[in-house]
Amino acid sequence: MWRQFTRFALPNGVCLLCSRRVGGVGALCAGCSGDLSCPKNPCPRCGNEGVTGLHCGMCLSAPPEFDGTVAAFRYAEPVSWMIQRFKFNQKLSYGRVLGEALAAAVLRRHDADMPQAIIPVPLHGRRQRERGFNQSLEIARIVATELALPLAGDAVARVRATEEQSLLDADARCKNIRGAFAVKRLPWRRVAIVDDVMTTGNTVGELAKTLKHAGCENVQVWVVARANR
User: Fold this and answer.
1) What CATH number corresponds to the domain at position 106?
2) What is the pLDDT of residues 12-24, one digit of tens each?
3) 77 with 124, same domain?
4) Beta strands 68-74 and 156-158: pairing type?
5) Which segment, 25-39, 44-58, 96-110, 202-216, is predicted with the most confidence on average?
6) Range of the domain at 23
7) Inter-helix orientation angle 92-109/135-147, to 10°
8) What is the DSSP letter of 44?
9) Which among 199, 187, 200 has a CA at the least distance from the CA of 119?
10) Judgement on whether residues 214 and 111 belong to the same structural domain of the protein
11) Are residues 57 and 29 located together in one domain of the fold?
């Protein structure tokens, strides 16, 4: 099981979570794959779980700027641990597994026309220099390759350095992200935003609003994990 993971570098051909032998490079064994929890009855608009009707109550009363959400997993262990290892420790092998899982989830659940391009949530230049890479861009590269879609990594810029959203409450997150993005080029009418984690949806909502103001007609959100509100 995944809780037996090693904290050291793993050789090729072993599970990234428990170190059992597996057939591929940077893969998970069948047991650990079964530990990855998927959202149950997600709202097709925002991805929030436990929806009994067509959409959740929040989307019916105040629809978000984006038009649909696909989340590969629920934000819970061991997915949360994998994302943190990838995001803060630059363990790119975890990002590859998560990106491939997101692409597979899109193929399973996307029942409309595919978008014309994939846009990763951009980091501000200062944050990217601190972290060394943009985790959303790395995930988007994999998804774009798996789905044979154009990757528009330079379509949008983060023009304002914001605080880390995970450190803020819901109201502060909304204010923190307001006006943070600017479109540099947008020759597409249907796009998908790619990010690692969606919690309140403020970040992808602000980006979707920016894209729609620039002429986009349909904005999907594809995330590795969705934290239930």
Assistant:
1) 3.40.50
2) 678 888 888 886 6
3) yes
4) unpaired
5) 202-216
6) 1-35
7) 50
8) T
9) 187
10) yes
11) no
Per the structure, the count of domains in the chain is: 2
Please give the single-letter amino acid code of residue 147: L
Instruction: Please list, in sequence order, all residues whose beta carbon lies within 8 angstroms of the beta carbon of residue 107, skipping any fewer than 6 positions away.
Output: 147
pLDDT tens-digit map of 97-120: 999 999 999 999 866 689 999 999
- At position 104, the amino acid (one-letter code) is A
pLDDT of residue 35: 87
Contact 225, 151 (CB under 8 A): no
Residue 221, both tokens: 């959100």
What's the first-to-final CA gap in the chain, in angstroms? 28
Q: Which amino acid is at 90?
A: Q
One domain for residues 24 and 40: no
- CA distances from residue 189 to 114, 164, 194, 198 in whole angstroms, order as listed: 11, 30, 16, 23
